[in-house]
Amino acid sequence: DIQMTQSPSSLSASVGDRVTITCRTSQSINKYLNWYQQKPGKAPRLLIYAASSLQSGVPSRFSGSGSGTDFTLTISSLQPEDFATYYCQQSYSTLYTFGQGTKLEIK
Amino acid sequence: QVTLRESGPALVKPTQTLTLTCTFSGFSLNTRGMCVSWIRQPPGKALEWLAIIDWDDDKYYSTSLKTRLTISNDTSKNQVVLTMTNMDPVDTATYYCARTSSRGPGFIMTFDYWGQGTLVTVSS
Question: What is the C-alpha separation between B69 and A47, in angstroms, rounded?
């Protein structure tokens, strides 16, 4: 199975900050990488697909980049509603796998 | 409007078999490219993909759990059922079903719609 490693595991930031979350895969997955946001007690929400495409309805302050084994999710200016846990997920293999999550907390 | 809803027991005993049902609307599993997946999340932990069934009735399972899982669909009822045998306390989790469909020119599969999840506790 393809292993996913996210960093950092947790992150403290302030409203208005620019933050970057990294996801690394154990083998090359081209651009078959998606990002999800999950708030406590809620189901995850698709933010970014194919490494850099914004899902409909997602604010443009979210962006993704990368290909191969290294990917990033960037939030350009944190808003109060962005404090949540973020997961990367690969779709290169049908044996889908998720990263361990990055919890974004208010500083 | 796409919706999914999970249903099943909130409590199961160790060694029992868990049966969960995902009832969906707003799309058809007969449509090429459409799939439904099951994903779980132990309390305070990460998401774990379990199984998927596609429009062609092909099925794939998590490597670590494949001997315990069975996924099936009833297209007449718009339902997908997951069974997991030999339940253990470590299987305590919120279980989600999610529509899985392709996006973009690369046909990249995404979990684009999710149910609200159902918490299953395994305890004697």
Answer: 29
